[in-house]
Amino acid sequence: MSEAKNEGTNLQLFLKRIPQGVAGPDDFEVRETEIPQIGDQQVLVQAHYLSVDAALRLIVRDSDEFLFRIRPGDMINNTFAGQVIESNNADFHAGDYVLAPLGAQNFGVTNGADLEKIDTSQAPLSGWLGGFGTSGLTAYFAIFEECKPQPGQTVVVNGAAGAVGTMAGQFAKLAGATVIGITGSAQKCQWLTEELGYDIAINYHDRDWFDQLEAAAPERIDVIFDNVGGDILDQSLKHIATRGIVLLCGSTSQYAQDEMVGPANYIWLGTMRARMQGFVVFDYADRYADARRRMAQWIADGQLKLPEYVIDGDVGDFPRAFQGQYEGKNLGKMLVRLPAAR
Ligand SMILES: NC(=O)c1ccc[n+]([C@@H]2O[C@H](COP(=O)([O-])OP(=O)(O)OC[C@H]3O[C@@H](n4cnc5c(N)ncnc54)[C@H](OP(=O)(O)O)[C@@H]3O)[C@@H](O)[C@H]2O)c1
User: Fold this and answer.
1) Are residues 23 and 322 in contact, defined by beta-carbon separation less than 8 angstroms?
2) Is the CB of 235 under 6 A from ligand 1?
3) Is this model's pTM higher than 0.70 or not?
4) How many CA atoms lie within 13 A of 269 on its CB side?
5) What is the average per-residue pLDDT within 46-67?
């Protein structure tokens, strides 16, 4: 069976060269190909939204140190949200919405084993890439299973206005904590407190941002939810509470650095009997459905938002969106909305 939009060509995005600094459009190459044909048991999926993830910068480094990497000449990896166009697989039908880890392109073919069906009655299609997708699940499990903040405790989220940070702050509020966000502009600070329920938000470009943080958390910080690492993490460690938790979710400030640096103020962890711990959302993959049921209820009750920052374009606009994310343009999840979704 076929859906309507099986026409035109397929644009695919490749890494052209190893980026220096934050990746820009010249580091990528768009190629135009035919829309692929499906064989026995295969499924053709059309992308509607591409996910723009800060972690992409980590895997385009010239390094084998990380879990996997993209080399020049490889297609940019991407899990997109899209729709089945044609299927020779009994498990999928034309019209089904799916999450598809098929790369940054308009159309992909798969045997279906890597597809995840999307229930748009739980959250809109785009949400399944952001607050209802990996970013939201990351925040959900990190907050509720690892950090477990208690009412009255203080949680600090850095990268607070980003895809993971916006969800982490909302979950910490639902847990009853006082939530402080750290982000890169006054406008974002205002948005965090007025739209997302953050108690206080601090602009790390203010010279006295750390004084503001100390004043905002007079009982010190029980949980540092760290998305960015670097100096923001390092300074914050000086204000960790006794038996506090530093949850290492990500290190965005380091991904484009030639030499990554860790925090110098780790000594405070010893004094305060605090702990710093790693976290990878995939450890919780068998519980995503449970988390989504709970999140869908909060959304229906008006207690949870799925913030997103959408760029209308095509596959070739992905590099611009990616660069914009590192410039802090996004409020919530950065997405590219492709022609199929418009
Ligand atoms: N552990 C896991 O399982 C897991 C899963 C998903 C994602 N992650 C991690 O979570 C983090 C957030 O990812 P995301 O995709 O949600 O990105 P994001 O937070 O939506 O976007 C990145 C944000 O980081 C901030 N930023 C950029 N450069 C910075 C710098 N040098 N110093 C401080 N802040 C900077 C910018 O906001 P400002 O305006 O605030 O600067 C930007 O908007 C990433 O480190 C990612 O690797 C971890």
Assistant:
1) yes
2) no
3) yes
4) 14
5) 94
